[in-house]
Each structure stands twice: as structure tokens, then as C-alpha cells.
Amino acid sequence: MDALGFARxxxxxxxxGNKIISGxxxxxxxxxxxxxxxxxxxxxxxxxxxxxxxxCSAKAVPHENPSISPVFCWRRQELPYTVCQIFGAxxxxxAQAARRIEQxxxxxxxxxxxxxxxxxxxxxxxxxxxxxxxxxxxIVAMVRAAVSFPVFVKFRxxxxxxxxxxxxxxxxxxxAGADALVFHPRVAPDRRTRPPKWDAISRVxxxxxxxxxxxxxxxxxxxxxQMTAQTGCHGLSLGRMAVARPWIxxxxxxxxxxxxxxxxxxxxxxxxxxxxxxxxxxxxxxxxKYAPYFCANFKFSHFLLKQLNQAKSMEDLKKTIHKLFASCxxxxxxxxxxxxx
Length: 341
Fold this sequence. Notes:
CATH architecture of the largest domain: Alpha-Beta Barrel
Strand content: 15-25%
Shape: globular
Number of domains: 2
Number of helices: 14
CATH class of the largest domain: Alpha Beta
Order of helices and strands: HEEEHEEHEHHEHEHEHEHHHHHH
Structural class: alpha/beta
């Protein structure tokens, strides 16, 4: 399959539960990166099937005020194509949060069983739930009973290198009522230090009848073609590569090309969107969380990142962006993965 044929495939509609998405290339559920400003940036480029919010606490969601929450907030126009990602430890807490999310008009809810950060796992949330398969399945079942819109589950291989376990969990999630799976084929403690096990995606896909989105090391369109051909997954879920290059969805699905000025324009636009949606110093903090992925695009990435991180205000930041990127520095064909934290 060539790039044109692959683009046609990615633009093929896909039923998920009682809804249909227009394309099979989606933003991955992430923590701290899928905020409202970044989603707006991706939406301006287009080409995606779905966007996912950052991780929202299921305990907080039922009572959260979107006008002041840094995570549980959205633009009204993005709701038809945005999935709200939640983490929690108990079935009733997750179900209550899902009800609120459905009432707000989101496309669906994503249950996070993939985050292996210690602070989340210590609360009995995220990937640690894979250690108690019955509890994880119970959460899915209670959420399914509480809502009618699509229910997604993001999960990992588990806590050992065992594709059979991942396939069994996929079956449990489908039986409990999940409408789609976002599968990251790495062992839970692994923070991207080893290659993902794409063969495990095949095992998961073969174990269920619901859509499976593959995730992990999708850096170039050839990677997407290879994952699709090798695993048979129904769609692709892009995380940190989409943060580095938010135009990647339009590039792969619409064949759009961008000149080197896209880097300067994108950094400025991200700064402006963060200023619009958040106050200081939080907006500057969020840009600095985004900066490693953006700077990974360049040959002298560590130097550029250091310069951006020295900014003390958003005005200072924008001046630095102009100075560093108005004349595009030398770029890399594949981003510096050492900065993909």
C-alpha cells in the first residue's frame, strides 16, 4: 500500500458503539499534554478521527467546574469528536464521572488502565488495576450500565511481558461492554525505554470483535503502514509524535505538506492558545511541558530547549520563539527520542 492508499484507508469511517468516526487516526489519551489548548491546535490542522482529553480525576468530575478546571474543560464545538479520559479506583466513582461526561455532550469516555506513574498507581488507579482483572472488568461493566455513549479502555500489556494476558484482558473488557480499545503494547513500568511489542497488538485484535487502536513508536507514515499491515489493528493512536508535530494527522490522512515555517508558526500559536485558555504561571508551565517534544524536531534540540526553559513570562517566551525559530533551525527527519519523556 502506498501513501495515497493508506490515506484512503485512514479516512474510512469506523463504527464505535452507537456512533461512527470519520477517520481511523486518533490522538492518544495522554496526561498533561491533551489539554484544551493543544486540542484546539490539533483541530486547526485537522485530519484526525478523534481527540482525547488529558486525564481527569473521576472523583472530581461529577462536581468539577469547567470554567476553572485546568483539565475538565473544553470548547463546545469540539465535543462531537472528543473523548474524555478519566482515572479512578472504584466502579461507582468511574460510573458517576461517566454520567456527567455523557451529559456534557462528549463523544465518549475513556477509562485509563494504562498510566503507570507511581502517584496514580498508589491511588489504586491506572495500570495498577491490571493487577486485579476482576475489578478492572467490574469498572467497565458499571460504566457501561451507566451510559449509552461509547466506552473506550486504554490499557497496557500488564505488569509482565505477557501478550496472552493482554488478550485475555481485552476479552474481559469487551464482555463487560467496552466499545473500543486503545492498546499500548508495553509492560506497565516501562516508560518507553524499550520498543513496544507490536505482536501483542495482533493478539489483542484477534481476541475481540470491537475496534482496537494500536499505539507505540509511530514516528513516520511507514510506521503506520507497517503497524496496520502487521497487526490488523482498526486504527492508529498517536501520542507524543502528535505533540511534536500537531499537523501529522493532516499530513498522513490528507497528504498535506508543510514548509519549514510551520515550526515557528506552531510554537507561537501554542503560546497564544495557552495564554487564551490559562493564566500565568500555569500557561508558561504547560508550554515548558510541551517544549521537549517540539524541540525534539531539531538537530540542536537540547540547546533550543534550554533557551525556551529560561523564559520567565509568556512575553519573554514569545520573544525567544521569534529569536530561535523565525529562521528555521536544522530539523531531523525523525525527532530526537531522548526528549520523548
